[in-house]
Amino acid sequence: MQRVDFGCVVVRVFGDLDLACRAEFRRNTADALPGSLVVVDLSRCLFCDSQGLLELFDLEQRAKVAGAQVRLAGVCPMVRRALELCGADTYLAMFPSVEAALNASKSA
Hints:
By secondary structure, the protein is α/β, with parallel strands linked by helices. 44% of the residues lie in helices and 31% in strands. The chain has helices spanning 22-32, 50-66, 77-85, 98-107, and strands at residues 2-5, 8-17, 37-48, 69-73, 93-95. Strand 3, helix 2 (50-66) and strand 4 form a beta-alpha-beta unit. Helix 1 (22-32) packs parallel to helix 2. It starts with a strand and ends with a helix.
C-alpha cells in the first residue's frame, strides 16, 4: 500500500487475486479506507477468481460507507474479461493506469 497524497492510497496487487490472498487484500484495503480515494493497481495481477471479484465488490461497498471512492487501474485483459462477465465493468471504475486514475480524481 502506498499513500500518494492526502486522502489518496494505491494498493498494488501482485500475482493472483483469489481465495489464497483474500485476507491479505482485505487487510491492505481496510488500512486504505480512511482516505477519499483508493486506487487498486491490477497491472501485475494476472488472474482473478470469484473470491477476488467478491473482494472488489466488497471494497466498493465498504468505500461507499466510508465516503471514499475505488478505482481499478491497469487491468490486464484476462482480469478485465472476468469483470465483464459478471457485469463489474459497469459497476467499478477502471482506468488504464494508476496515473490516469489519480488524475481523474484531481479533475473531478
